[in-house]
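question for whoever is on the cluster today: can someone run the full assembly for these? two chains, 720 residues total. i dont have access anymore since they changed the login thing
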Amino acid sequence: MSKPLNPKKEKKDITINKLKGLGQSIVDDVSKNEIPTLNIPSRGTGNIVYDEDKRYYVLGDRYGKRSLGNVKQIKKMGQMMHVSNFCKNLVSTEKTATLREMYYVSEGWGMGFSDQNESNILAEDLEVTVGASREDLGLMPEEDGASVYGDILLKEGDVEINALKSGKSGYTISPTIDEVEFIGHNVERVIAVETMGMFHRMVQEEAYKKFNTLIVGLKGQAARATRRFLKRVSTELKLPVYICNDGDPWGFHIAMVIISGSAKLAHVNHDLATPDAKFLGVTASDIVKYELPTDKLKEVDVLRLKELAKDPRYRNKQWQDEIKKMLKIGKKAEQQAFSKYGLEYVVDTYFPEKLEEIEN
Amino acid sequence: MSKPLNPKKEKKDITINKLKGLGQSIVDDVSKNEIPTLNIPSRGTGNIVYDEDKRYYVLGDRYGKRSLGNVKQIKKMGQMMHVSNFCKNLVSTEKTATLREMYYVSEGWGMGFSDQNESNILAEDLEVTVGASREDLGLMPEEDGASVYGDILLKEGDVEINALKSGKSGYTISPTIDEVEFIGHNVERVIAVETMGMFHRMVQEEAYKKFNTLIVGLKGQAARATRRFLKRVSTELKLPVYICNDGDPWGFHIAMVIISGSAKLAHVNHDLATPDAKFLGVTASDIVKYELPTDKLKEVDVLRLKELAKDPRYRNKQWQDEIKKMLKIGKKAEQQAFSKYGLEYVVDTYFPEKLEEIEN
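^ ran it for u. tokens below:
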């Protein structure tokens, strides 16, 4: 496989061509004396399918038509052209904007949105219609991604960054993570943890040396940029990715969104999901085995666990067993509960045992 | 003024001595055949005073007694000795722990806390009693601080970090910010902004070059580490600090907590408040002058603004005028609303005009 000479420029050209193509299709309709119409893939629940081969949610093949022949759709068509044009300018000038900024910019279009929800949905319409993620279109999420600590060398523009030398809080994955090049690394795996408390614990106990690993601090639900980063280390660097979260339904969910994507983002899961990533813990079995301090499952936890049991992403035996076991013991535990045995225990005992178990 | 040879070691020794002193006072009481008693400064609202000279909240001189002669207080005294000992070990071994970790560690003490709120309060008791911040005691907040972008060179342990070369999301202020040395810089000021959307806008428009400034992305309410960083750049580097937030009561409050501290943390405001920091905007006057897109003040905004008007921290004329004006126009505006005039406007027009106004 030959590598493109300048992958960034190539991607930029592809996106611009997609956007131009959208405009051209309208022009073509007009010149053929037809009513300009767009096919917009449906993002409704009926069109979100779990793909067993890909191991994540994808969009099915249903779509809706948006036509200038329908009075109710004229404004939406016009807004879509404006958004497309705005994105084309962003990509051409190598700038980005937040959805919030675009909403304010749209005040000058003479066909403004009634609220930001409307402009957000239109941006998603554009994503699915042209088949490009919002990041490709220059529409960046506000939120930064996770913190990364460990021996990897990255390049952003002219700047080289060593995530072992970015301070104790590590390198922050920026929303523009796709423009970051992986220059080199000296690790064997990646361990992502839910809380920054655990991230700092692992840095302090030198887990990056002990396990020859990158440490990724997710800060709760993983941002898009984080998921993209984990996908890239998994596919480009072929590194195994492990996720260690709190032992509760929310921790399971955070891991699963990284692994198999969310239904809501079915149209971009091919860029974001990392089906080879593995959930390391905290499992219900860990709670029992390590006699962790626990909290009782709340009613909402029980309901959530029962939902997860029916979710296709949790179909494999290990997940089913762990969900059943958690319901049976009626308890949940936080990552930091290992401190019961001293601050070092999690790095000195728990992680080595779990890694041994999962890698052998 | 002679500089200590190793300020970090000196600080460590001071903290250890404070903790030893606490234990010694108990031993002394016992050897004098007196009932061991501690004086714990009160953190009740009646003992929180706004200090006009210092320009932030401080604790008054009221205190409560905690005595081993009072059956109800025996457990609390014992817990305090355990927490002190735990902190002494942290500081001696140059480790840190989160409050959550300490809560779990306390399971082994045989006089555990009934919930984490109880152990958090006890940690605060210890802070005020020995006169050391929780960070000095090794008890770190979980949350990281703000993002910093710009020409400053920092040193954490053996690692030198250039906040201009840490990636587009900048250098993340770690909870252990007091261990970071300022090696050098080439800036004239610091501009802190409320949202990461505005942070990325400023990085993209090269505001760090145009205004020779550090850009600090607060991510909403500033973390303790962020406040400590801003205090340090203000006092150690003598840099003017400006804060630009959303133009609403919440944005005002975020700025004011940086400037004059919070009542709740009156016992550590001397480490955290930056009374010389200035609120740049968005003001009610800006909303009118720049004809910004606005939202109507909600009832809760109006109530909050009326509270702020009575708060001693907002006593000066400028704040009083701006609060009155916002109530009069009945409107609020977000930082990103400047995008109405194009993405570059905020950096090309708004900031230069505001800086000119405030610096001349």
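summary bc i know u wont read the tokens: The radius of gyration of chain B is 23 Å. Chain B touches chain A through 50 residues (CB under 8 Å).
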